[in-house]
């Protein structure tokens, strides 16, 4: 292999960790391979004072990276799967999904051990509607407000006393060696994760066959089935960008069966729908769609419509 692989990446520590991870994996598989990081600042990194739901959502973090690949200034982009929009632009596609890190959410606080341990009226920071639904359902007395910025910024706001607790993805904290900040890893029953949370995916040009074969050894089939089911559910619910939807798949019975749980709720926690489905892992995508249908039949579309009107 004489070509150099250029990885388009944002400059946040988490994005750089992910790019470095893929670089190290490729170097381990292909000694002597040349890999370059092409760093860029995206719209999502620039606009930090507005809730993501109001400015067009997570797509803002990937557009610049995708343009770089389409204009042949980069070859691959490494994404957190939970931030990857459902549809890819013409000419680009997902080549690989890497093994999943812990998919849970983490409760972080300097004074309290868990949500249940927080005093009446305590202040929780999160900018995820999905986390807000589950926090308010459990503890309607808590005040929840928007918390944006990268992981370090968010921890800084907690430490400065702006919040009594914040919730972040466990995976991001583990990758940044900040696991010690976690007071409680919230089980899926307490906070159902976002589709794709904890998994890293690699996007590239669909016509770059040489590169696609080269990336193959980084692919993890089991993670891919789980994320496929989760994303199929999100897509059928027209997930849009920033939505109060949780979904989480695990494999059972020697990895032959897939158990998918889904949740849709009003951000104030006053109405929360949950359902689940189990079936053969080969039907991952169909299971995701089926679970979405079940949730829609139970009123998920009303809830989502309400959220979209509220948030404009
Ligand atoms: N929304 C930003 C984002 N995207 C992916 C992760 C964590 C890593 C992952 O899920 O793979 C985070 C941080 C967080 O939610 O705390």
TrEMBL record:
Give TM segment ranges: none
UniProt entry keywords in alphabetical sequence: Porphyrin biosynthesis, Transferase
One Pfam family name from the record?
Porphobil_deam
Q: Which reaction does this chain catalyze?
A: 4 porphobilinogen + H2O = hydroxymethylbilane + 4 NH4(+)
Q: Which family does it belong to?
A: Belongs to the HMBS family.
Q: Which cofactor does it need?
A: dipyrromethane
Gene Ontology, cellular component aspect: cytoplasm
Q: Does the keyword Transmembrane helix apply?
A: no
* Gene, per the UniProt record: hemC
- What general EC class does the enzyme of this chain belong to? transferase
Task: Please tell me what else the database record remarks about this protein.
Answer: The porphobilinogen subunits are added to the dipyrromethane group.
Q: Quaternary structure? A: Monomer.
What SUPFAM superfamilies has UniProt attached to this entry?
Periplasmic binding protein-like II, Porphobilinogen deaminase (hydroxymethylbilane synthase), C-terminal domain
> What is its biological role?
Tetrapolymerization of the monopyrrole PBG into the hydroxymethylbilane pre-uroporphyrinogen in several discrete steps.
UniProt EC number: 2.5.1.61
Q: Where is the Porphobilinogen deaminase N-terminal domain?
A: 5-211
At the top level, the lineage of the source is: Bacteria
Per the annotation, how and in what number is the cofactor bound? Binds 1 dipyrromethane group covalently.
Give the sites modified to S-(dipyrrolylmethanemethyl)cysteine. 241
Name of this protein: Porphobilinogen deaminase
